[in-house]
Specification:
Length: about 80
């Protein structure tokens, strides 16, 4: 099958998913752009991707759990 998305970009200023891929986006990062889809530009995409790149992907874990997992990998 197709892998679940890591990033979902919603354009047009809407702050909801409207049921779009509801189960598949459980651990996705959500980016909401005020720009309507026809005007969504390369720079808007780069901004969304930059924001995504700066997030800590925890996949439902707490920051403490992430740190504990990292400590286990080091030892």
């Amino acid at each position: 099958g197709v892998p679940d998305p890591d990033l979902v970009v919603r354009t047009g200023g809407e702050r909801r998913l409207s049921g779009f891929l509801l189960w598949q986006v459980a651990y996705a990062e959500l980016h909401f752009a005020d720009v309507p889809w026809p005007d969504f530009s390369k720079s808007d995409l780069i901004a969304a991707m930059s924001a995504f790149a700066s997030t800590e992907r925890r996949f439902g874990r707490t920051p403490k759990q992430v740190q504990e997992d990292m400590d286990k990998q080091i030892t």
